Amino acid sequence: APNEILIDLGHEFTNIFAIHQGRCIFTREQNLGMKALVEEISRYAGISTTEAENVLAQGSPAENLQQVMAQFRSETANEINRMIQHFFADSSMNRVHRIWLSGGGSVMQGLVQEVAEMTGVPTYKAEPFGGFELPKHLDPLFVQKMGPTFLTAFGLAIRED
């Protein structure tokens, strides 16, 4: 079975889960989240945090914010790489076959590619609704884009006690 890493990029925290043979063998929480990017955009652009969240939700911020986004994306990929290296130092596992990104931060444009380049590991956005037939009233593009943000809720919904 492949060794996989799930990185859940939340609002205030990022969690790493190492999965070996279908079982979670390592977890760690870092004080890194999208809140820092929202605050940086707010400061840089002189807008409220609510407006900054709306800018991020639109997916392609104005050109003057591209540098802020690129810097945050690079720092996030670096931190993910450090988290994975820390995991390797604490475990007998020395190879990861895939990295999955979930949570609100995973929809950041270009992050999947940057993490893949930084770590040298194939990296994907988690798609919990992949393979499911969606109700007709749901926009499939929205579900595809935002699916990774629902991974935890989806997992809880299908869990058997």
What does this structure look like?
This protein has helices at residues 34-45, 49-58, 63-90, 111-119, 140-146, 151-158; strands at 4-9, 14-20, 23-30, 98-102, 123-125. 23% of the residues are buried. Helix 1 runs antiparallel to helix 3. It is an alpha/beta fold and 161 residues long. A five-stranded mixed beta sheet has the order 3-2-1-4-5, covered by helices on one side. Helices cover 46% and strands 18% of the residues.
Give me the secondary-structure topology.
Layout: E1 4-9, E2 14-20, E3 23-30, H1 34-45, H2 49-58, H3 63-90, E4 98-102, H4 111-119, E5 123-125, H5 140-146, H6 151-158
Parallel strand pairs: 1-4, 4-5
Antiparallel strand pairs: 1-2, 2-3
Helix pairs in contact: 1-2, 1-3, 3-4
Largest sheet: 5 strands, mixed
Number of helices: 6
Mean of residue pLDDT?
82
Estimate percent helicity. Answer: 40-55%
As laid out across the biggest beta sheet, the strand order is 3-2-1-4-5
What is the rounded distance between the termini? 25 Å
Q: Care to give the gist of this entry?
A:
The chain is of the alpha/beta class and 161 residues long.
Characteristics:
alpha/beta; five-stranded mixed sheet; single chain; 161 residues; 46% helix; globular; 6 helices
